[in-house]
Amino acid sequence: MGPSEGPHDHRGHELIDLDGKVAVVTGAASGIGRAITRGFVAAGAKVLAADIDEAGVWRTAELCDDPTAVEPLRADVSDPDDVAAAVETAERTWGRVTTMVNNAAVSIPGNVLETSVEDFDRMLAVNLRGVFLGCKYAVPALLRAGGGSIINMGSVNSLVAEPVLAGYTASKGGVLMLTKAVARDFATSGVRCNCICPGWVDTPINLAHAERMGGIESVRDALPSWQPIGREGRPDEIAAVALFLASDLSSFMTGSAVVADGGMTAI
């Protein structure tokens, strides 16, 4: 049983009611995106689960309490047509969209000398352009629904840099500033936009970086020295933050960087 399929995946669903919410979740085939999809469904939402990994999003649907509450869709978030189609499909299927979770990302480790132009462009295309497109096509749907919540997945690297992550850090810094811009532009229209900033979480996206740091076991051994909670985060712990931001409990929050990093940025 992998970390994204464990018994804690529904953390928060018993406390937060998302009945009537309709969400689009990108990067839903694994890790945090899968945990968010499962948590949203457990809390009563309908979810359009999008990912370039089509088999992965179908597996995510199967893992949900109610697979019929999930519409899996293959989508490349760097493609405007795919992102527009995801929002349109959710709205057509369930009548409205209330929540957009821009979670899809790629991480290709390297400093500026090691990172190719192609890899840098790819990270910006998925991590930043993908969030821009998600906001661009979700906002009109949220306005038609009478308002809603955009949740962008940033990182501690939206706030601080780490070694050999130049492109990823640049893209995630952009995600936070884009979040603030969208929040300012639509604050009086009922559309909220917030950014979750996770620390080191046990997800597949971190494996390549872990190899650069000596392997995943070396990372886990060293974690207490730079993530004070002393362990990796779990996808369901980040999903719990997304549940809160998707709910009406966070109605006064917009433009926020919500840090869930086990104390990493407290050092």
Automatic annotation (TrEMBL):
GO terms for molecular function: oxidoreductase activity. It is an enzyme of class 1 (oxidoreductase). Its EC number is 1.1.1.385. Keywords: Oxidoreductase. Pfam families: adh_short_C2. InterPro entries: NAD(P)-bd_dom_sf, Sc_DH/Rdtase_CS, SDR_fam. PANTHER family: DEHYDROGENASES, SHORT CHAIN, ESTRADIOL 17-BETA-DEHYDROGENASE 8-RELATED. Belongs to the short-chain dehydrogenases/reductases (SDR) family. This is Dihydroanticapsin 7-dehydrogenase. It comes from Streptomyces olivochromogenes. The gene is bacC.
